[in-house]
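Subject: complex prediction, re-run

Hi both,

The earlier run crashed halfway through, so I resubmitted it with identical inputs.
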Amino acid sequence: MQNRYPIGILGATGMVGQRYIQLLADHPWFEIAWLAASDRSSGKPYGEAVKWRLDTPLPDRIAKMPVSPADPDGAPRIIFASVDAAFARELEPKFAEAGCAVLSNSSAFRMADKVPLVIPEVNADHLQLIEEQEWRKQSGGYMVTNPNCSTIGLVMALRPLEERFGISQIFVSTMQAVSGAGYPGVASMDILDNVVPYIGSEEEKMEAETLKLLGKSESHTVTPLDAGITAHCNRVPVVDGHTECVSIKLRKPATREQILAAWDEFKPLAGMDLPFAPKQPVQFAEQADRPQPRLDRNRERGMAVTVGRLRPCNLLDWKFVLLSHNTVRGAAGATILNAELLASLGKLEQVAVAAGRA
Amino acid sequence: MQNRYPIGILGATGMVGQRYIQLLADHPWFEIAWLAASDRSSGKPYGEAVKWRLDTPLPDRIAKMPVSPADPDGAPRIIFASVDAAFARELEPKFAEAGCAVLSNSSAFRMADKVPLVIPEVNADHLQLIEEQEWRKQSGGYMVTNPNCSTIGLVMALRPLEERFGISQIFVSTMQAVSGAGYPGVASMDILDNVVPYIGSEEEKMEAETLKLLGKSESHTVTPLDAGITAHCNRVPVVDGHTECVSIKLRKPATREQILAAWDEFKPLAGMDLPFAPKQPVQFAEQADRPQPRLDRNRERGMAVTVGRLRPCNLLDWKFVLLSHNTVRGAAGATILNAELLASLGKLEQVAVAAGRA
Amino acid sequence: MQNRYPIGILGATGMVGQRYIQLLADHPWFEIAWLAASDRSSGKPYGEAVKWRLDTPLPDRIAKMPVSPADPDGAPRIIFASVDAAFARELEPKFAEAGCAVLSNSSAFRMADKVPLVIPEVNADHLQLIEEQEWRKQSGGYMVTNPNCSTIGLVMALRPLEERFGISQIFVSTMQAVSGAGYPGVASMDILDNVVPYIGSEEEKMEAETLKLLGKSESHTVTPLDAGITAHCNRVPVVDGHTECVSIKLRKPATREQILAAWDEFKPLAGMDLPFAPKQPVQFAEQADRPQPRLDRNRERGMAVTVGRLRPCNLLDWKFVLLSHNTVRGAAGATILNAELLASLGKLEQVAVAAGRA
Amino acid sequence: MQNRYPIGILGATGMVGQRYIQLLADHPWFEIAWLAASDRSSGKPYGEAVKWRLDTPLPDRIAKMPVSPADPDGAPRIIFASVDAAFARELEPKFAEAGCAVLSNSSAFRMADKVPLVIPEVNADHLQLIEEQEWRKQSGGYMVTNPNCSTIGLVMALRPLEERFGISQIFVSTMQAVSGAGYPGVASMDILDNVVPYIGSEEEKMEAETLKLLGKSESHTVTPLDAGITAHCNRVPVVDGHTECVSIKLRKPATREQILAAWDEFKPLAGMDLPFAPKQPVQFAEQADRPQPRLDRNRERGMAVTVGRLRPCNLLDWKFVLLSHNTVRGAAGATILNAELLASLGKLEQVAVAAGRA
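This time it finished cleanly. Structure:
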């Protein structure tokens, strides 16, 4: 127990903050040591500050922890952050500057030049960007981001195909769960017996992040994938799990069997023993009517992406459906897996040392 | 009252059959004179045979009408039909052969060579095909079909653009209401907190019907539109109203204003005084997050299509969202409007005469 | 048109405020002349200030009306009010003091001694209380309230039974729609695939209001009904329509037929020609599984209450289910019907005169 | 592994059948050895016969098992049964007669004189009734039933109170999940944006079973609890988890603290080490708005009942809300726990021996 990394959570009372707490409850490498949220919550025991919305009990130890102010003083050197972009823009650099490894689910810095946007299975090599960050040079601190919840599933399904066949065009239409909007988030009057065909800035994020994630890491920067992409984003009355309809054009022809094989054989983290890494990151569902959020979102504890309905597309080459758990694989689990990857690369030790020096 | 056309309903107990009854309750031109359903219902008063699922009361007169066997004997000469394709394939020709005008919402004959597939605002001229039908020549009877519920909204939104700018590529991803699957239809265990990304044969229907509807009527046949189209069809937890995300490539460039004008000025039935024709068939919603099924499905008593979110598409030219009421505009209302058009063209009188002769 | 009473709406942007606007669109007696909402909205055109959540279009005339500050200056003499209790407590007396007839849907003064809590079909005679109000004596202004949304349906179903048989015990358990909580109101994360068995203060309101409504109006006050009542209130994933399970103990024995007759013959407003009065205020549904919110909430444009499943209760005497449209019959329609009753009693003329004097 | 009891499942493709399979996947005492379903499924591999609706994958071993005909020949000596009452009435006696221990979730024999209706925490002593059964005497076979899904939660919450204070009157109003109706069960058109205030025979079952469960086991029979009970049963749009509003009259006065203590100290199976027995069978939720199905149904893997909102009742003594997972605690888990109890009492060994003899 004493060997686990102490970590802090910035934005601990939000939906993703709650997921961090749920998912880290028995984590073998990380231990929650610090919780911060808005000023309104500061000072209260976490159990009073939070409106816990998950279906497992809030652990007693966490319920009793005080909520700290969102300030690097007294915070651990590893920070999991999930706050609104406006707050993130202001807060996250403070922590990096103070020598923290900031692992962020916020959108504020995802597209920043020197900030790696990473899915461990997809582009672990982009992590080298942290060495380009001023914070790193000054205090040892750095920032790593994970993508938007709707982007992660898409990119995980595309990565094995891009690798083998190349992708030149991507069409995606999403049906996203309400948990993606946080709490209270979507009003029930807006979503019962309804669909909302609009999510602010979501399409832009999805388009830009996808190309950066599939891009090439070069000496000092990342060159985005040279492909066309268009997204239609919708909110549907589902609690958890984003479903996405995808059509793609490949650079090299591929048969159905080759595509299935590409997904099946996609196991880039095999052998690394990261606790949150799914054994089979992209799982193909054989049934004609799958994947479905209620039935498939929890595969490999919510960390696997399910694909299905692979069939030819009249306009591009292939079309299929994918599903991923938006607050696990698409948010909290993504940050945690990034942290595990960094730990296994020795990048968290360095922070601890740097912090020790500071 | 005595001047109204007596009409019969084939498939009267189904969801669309119920909508025919609801929508025709006070129709100025048509009067329900005959109801037929499966053998199981035959002989019972309609009120006992049906599980009425609409939110207006079943009219007393209709509740007391007996359910007749599905046989042309004793049926009126105008038949509104909405039965499963397998039954339609067998039953509908019998009625046409017996001299009836069969106005069908069933999918069985929509793509048949000599059978017009018609949306009055879109391709009224395709009706000439009925004169090519053997039935017409023999008994005066004929068959006219209306499209699938997901096709109608799409084609109404596309028609004004095809007319002015030409369309070469269509991408559509749907979020369809459960009423489209009839009753009992979709199990609640399949759709609560869920999405089903599959509807049997729906994508194929949508792709083929769209091109036929936008096609050119020539001497003896219809030449489908020469365009590429791909559809992703999904079921969502919504009672009524299909939402569709669309991207299109135009043959001639068009500005946003030109597209809005094309929709705004699309009033092909103006001056015909058809009771069910919407005044503004395609209505643009200004708000960023519209159309939405719960809020927009009832525009012009469910007969208008709402479009919104017109914006450039990174892959094709433009993208937008559309919504139409699937059991009104997309089914029962579609058949009724076809019947009104035929009446105003004198094609129902001819049936009556022909039938009189027979 | 020029003969209609000009009325003002306090709380115009809320869910009930929106319903006032929808329901008064073509009202023969009342014309919306003034809209007020929170300071945040003040000065904006209503169309910009409101997030319109109803499925009929916001009328153009109303969309362009400016939102006024919530102050009696410049307001009409008849005010329909639906604001949070805390605001109501402060604002409504100001309007009554300034000579307005305040017809309120707010809970703040419902239980006040001299304020009548009225359902026209149930206790029109309680209106005499307005003559006891200080405001009335000073400025001619007065206050009349309508009950909570869950109370109205219950009391309408109970009133005919209380009249004929007497009621000594009432057990009620509700399943209430989300629209009852306003907008944004209930978070979707709280209600999708869920039930919330708690609505703040609702049980207390329902218990107290029911007894006052069924109470006896005496010289200067109302003596509540002498009966026991207990309420369990729950929120369910339904957009509109409160469903309530009721068990009652009667003072005199009644047969099933007698109870049905009491409901059937309950037409206390017959002959008064109030535009919003339902012809059959309490309607019995014969089917075993009714009433249901989606199917029955719109009976008589949402102003009728539907009862069903009348059967013996093992503990008390009878049990049944009732349903009423919570934002129509249970809120906006209730205020409007109160206003119609006051108009027909000449109590709105008096305000106009009094106001003229002031 | 070789020491586990082989068990068979009758009704293996239904919703409860699927839960047996899910819950028994890693059961330390029982191993699924035989699956039977309707004739239509017989002979197929289970994976083809079932429409798997649970959110964990169907185990491979089970998917490959053939579906057997519903006949005792070749079946194991321990049968978990969950089939429609009509089938149960015919099939279950055949298995008991053939020497099987039939542990049934079906309603057919729950109220039969010599058949114990058992919840291990509540009335384990009723099991003695099996020795009165003819089957037992003839072949060693016997039948034990578990209650209806809505009854179990209620009785578990009541039992500790009945024990300490006595209960004379029970009022219960339920909000039941759709999974309780099986698959396809409730049509989505019936439950989206809706409540159905009727479940066939449910109220009668709930009333009768509750009194039998809380009754006294005497030499040859069970005397039901002498108490009044009335139930209102409703279906709501929730996937899993029945919520119930309860009012009770006690025979002896009890304070809030005494009631909470009765629930808290209710641990009748402590020390027996039954794998499915919850550590804290009745759990009190402190929050004002709990229990809620989405948040509380999975406590102790779905085997605990959550109670909340304990408060005085104006009519009876106390009221509260309870929640239990209807297909786990209320069905499949109930049968399994009954089997565990029988195993620990040595009643399954005896069947094996008896069967060996036969």
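The longest helix of chain D spans residues 149-165.

- K.
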